[in-house]
Amino acid sequence: MNLKAKAVYLEGIRQFAIREIDIPKPGPGEVLIRVKAVGICGSDVHYYEYGRIGKFVVEFPMILGHEAAGEIVQVGEGVTSLKVGDRVAMEPGIPCGKCRYCKTGRYNLCPDIKFWATPPVNGAFVEYVTHPADFCFKLPSNVSFEEGAMFEPLAVGLWAVEKANLRPEHSVAILGVGTIGMMTLQSVFAVGISDVTVFDTSSHKLNVAEKMGAKVVLCGENLEFYDKYRDRFDVVFETAGSSVTASQTAKLLAPGGTVVLVGLPSEDAVPINLNLLISKEATIKTVFRYANMYPRALELVSKGKIKLSHLISKRFRIDQLQEAFEYTIHNKDKVIKTMIVI
Ligand SMILES: [Zn+2]
Ligand SMILES: [Zn+2]
Known about the structure:
By secondary structure, this protein is an alpha/beta fold. It has helices spanning 42-50, 100-103, 145-149, 151-164, 179-190, 203-211, 243-252, 274-279, 294-302, 321-330, and strands at residues 4-12, 15-22, 30-40, 52-53, 56-57, 67-75, 87-90, 93-94, 114-115, 128-132, 136-138, 172-175, 196-200, 215-218, 233-238, 253-261, 283-286, 312-317, 337-341.
């Protein structure tokens, strides 16, 4: 095996460079993976454009990418669950396993979690990467590497639905149909809900959602637009991460309903009508990443209950990473998922 591999480093704002790195060796309990597909996430684009998200500041150079799948080429000591040649999706967050959050199954809240492409942890825009076998999920032959890479955003959608306590008779609104909105939409359908309305400003994305079976609403310019949908939805998912849509959740919600906040707005403070929420005795849930959702993603995708490939807008090679990011930034209205194929 060639002992050097390519890695793409973010070296400054909007500036990638390919470097040669040593192929890492898998430690005990780890596997070495030849990376095959990595999706570009909104968070990757944000780091690329601004060098930070909230308290997480990039220290250049850094490797981005956390939505990945690949093939095992070497197994470390003590690994029995996987073997060379297995195709796997990698869950990108490695929690400590010892703290009270880890021990109670809420490892997404682990203060010591090492999550790919969240500073200072490097990510997966590389040819080879090591990872704990416990966080690698074997793909059946009918699931592609690209689909495996998309388990990551799908896990967020599944976790959002897990939090919502949906019932078959519920009417659901999803505000924003970017990748996470699309994943939430499919996760809602997968639990048997049929009455789903999605809101977005992109007619292209709404067309895709409509083909998947959603009712669609092209958002208007001003806030009065949302008055038409007052008190309409039992569950409102905010996936756009927009302060505009987040501020409208109280209005759209039916009395007794649940708001699930999934998107991270860029502002810390967002105006939400608390009086209205309290008078509706609303339940408010928030979602940060996910825990234990990869097995469910695997199950639903391998059985064909959730489809992912049609959400890939364009594919690029790893040596075209800069082009891929620029394309994603300049086509925000059209792009649902940009995929890097290695
Ligand atoms: Zn992601
Ligand atoms: Zn922990």
